[in-house]
Structures are given as structure tokens and as C-alpha cells.
Amino acid sequence: KQLTVKKSAMIASAEITNTFFALDRTKTALLSLPAKYVAGKMMIVRALISGMNLMLVKPSISPLAKTPSIRIDFCPLTPMQVQKSLAQNLKELKSIGAIIIGGAPISMALEEAIIQHLPNAYATFGMTETLSHIALRKITENNFKFQALPGVRFETNKQEGLESCLVIHAPHIQSDPLRTTDIVLLIDDQTFIWKGRKDLVINSGGIKINPEEIEQKLHNLFPENAFFVHSKPDDLLGQKVILVVEDPNHQIKVVEKLAQMKRLLPTHNTPKEIIVVAHLQRTPTNKIIRKL
After folding, report:
1. Residue 187 DSSP one-character state
2. Residue 190 and residue 145: Cα distance in Å, rounded?
């Protein structure tokens, strides 16, 4: 999407992150994300404001494969980049001072690997409108609580009947509250647990089901495949839960996987059908497009 933002808002956002991670002219950061999107742009602004050295590598799934052997103090990565780097460049990944991970949800399997190997990794919460992250959670704390950055506070949109949808107050970015479709468990005005997005919720037989919560539990069943939970119209249930799996060679054993999911998930959350496709649609930033 295209947005008009003030330079002062970008500077304010950059200063908060720089202060939190103690980024200054003595530090080096790695930019391995496309600079045409907000996450990459904000890395450039952070470097301009702090004076830190910004090392550039071509965005790829394995950004640490050709990184010079110098100390990296700060690096933003996507979950996919972290997963590949854990497998191929663990030594280089472990040497980074602080890693922020965003752009897509982190699977439970990846979360466990991060806890084991990366003590200074943070999951981020943010969007284009918030000019990158406005909340962080340290993954090794293993409590799934996002903590607001200084100057940010949260509430839920109760007045519109969306009891669990997050409202963000970030006056350094915009004066009006930012209303989201993110379902959260609000702990207090500084802390929340993210549950999923309201616009993805499936209503199956009157039971509201969050696809992203199911996906978290299925990653160990499909360690080599991209997938997403979706729905299909159903005469009895209204919507039935299905699973769409990417498998170019169509080697997925559908009957076996359906049985495994039945043992793993509650009945109403279990996908009733698996659709195997050669390739899933993706955005330019490699996010899965949830369409059949």
C-alpha cells in the first residue's frame, strides 16, 4: 500500500528503536531486507539518525551466506531467513548482537529453535502504518507477551463490539489511534498476547476458529512445506476448515496427514480436507497470499 508519512515520524520511530537497542556510531547493523518496503527504509533511517555503520547485502533467503566476518550488532530478519540461517549459517547467526524477527508469524518449531540457539532474538509487532515495530517480545522469555516500546500504549476496540481487537496509541507516529483487526489478549495498556487476525476467523458450525492458532500447531507435521489454514462453504457447518499445502512433487500422504491432525487437534479445529498445490501465491515480500 502507499502511505504518506512525515519524516519527523520516521525519525521518532528510529530514535525509539536506537535507544532500546543502544545503537550508535560504534555499532554495525546488517540490512538484508528490500529497501523499497518500510522495514528496509526504517533500517536506513536508523542508521542515518544513529550514525551506525549499515552493511548491505542482497536480500535473499540466506542473507548470512556471504556476509563479511565482522561483528554485527543488530539485524532484522524474516522467519524464513532465520530458519535457513539456523540450518546453514548458525555460527554467523549466533554472533549477531540482537536480531529482530518480523514480517510473518513465527512457527512453534522455529520458536523452539530460536530459544535454544539465539538468546538475543526478538519477535516484532508492527505494520506499514506504524513505521515498523511498535512492540517487541524477547523470544527466550517464552511467554508470548509483546511489550510496547516507549511512548506507545494499547487498548481494545470495545465500543465497536470488537472486544479483542487491538487499538494502538502511538502519538509519535500519528495523532489518531490506529484501529487494527488483530485479535489480542490485552494484559495491560503496555502488554498483550497476539492471537491472530479477525478478518481470517472461520465460523464453522457456530464456533469461531482462528486459522493462525491452528497453523502454529501443525508446523511439525509439515516441516518442509509451506501451508495455510483456510475454509470452504459447507451445507452443514456453513464453513469447514481445510488445509492448503504447497508440494511441487505432490508427495504429501493426504490420508496419513488427516489422521495425524485428528490426533493433534480438537475436532472443530481439525481440517476436514487437504488441498495440495504445486505453488502457493506470494507477495513481493514472500508472504503467502491466502487464496485458492
Report:
1. E
2. 10
